[in-house]
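It is worth pausing here to work through a concrete case rather than discussing structure prediction in the abstract. The textbook approach is simple: state the sequence, then state the predicted structure, then interpret. We follow exactly that order.
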Amino acid sequence: MTPPETVRVRSRSGAGPAPADRLFTALAEWRRRPEVVRDALELLEAAPLASAGHFRGDLLRRLMDLPSSYWARQPAQYARYRAVVRAAALLRRALPEAERHAFWGDLPPLPRGDAPGDAPADAPADAPRARAP
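Step two, the predicted structure:
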């Protein structure tokens, strides 16, 4: 397991630093707020292979799980995301083969309540939940 990324960015929300491990989990929560993606992009622009502690680039992999419908509503963020993906691809080429392949492995499971469709513990009882397809 890779230690969490030490590169930190100041959250524009004023909540303090946004460490990679907090962003990793927040990206998969039931509500994908643009400010969480913005904070993740800021960190990834500084360190494209930032890690939340699982493997190099795990934060970017989590960002890659966002649906295309999210990016369609956020074209400015999508342009930044594409630049990060390109930068990370170039950096991965210099990694040892095993680390390059780890990037495409399975992401670790989320803590209970953090899976898409699950409402967080502090959500109201009537919070919307994702429907099965």
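Step three, interpretation. Confidence is low (pLDDT under 50) at residues 1-17, 114-133. The radius of gyration is 15 Å.
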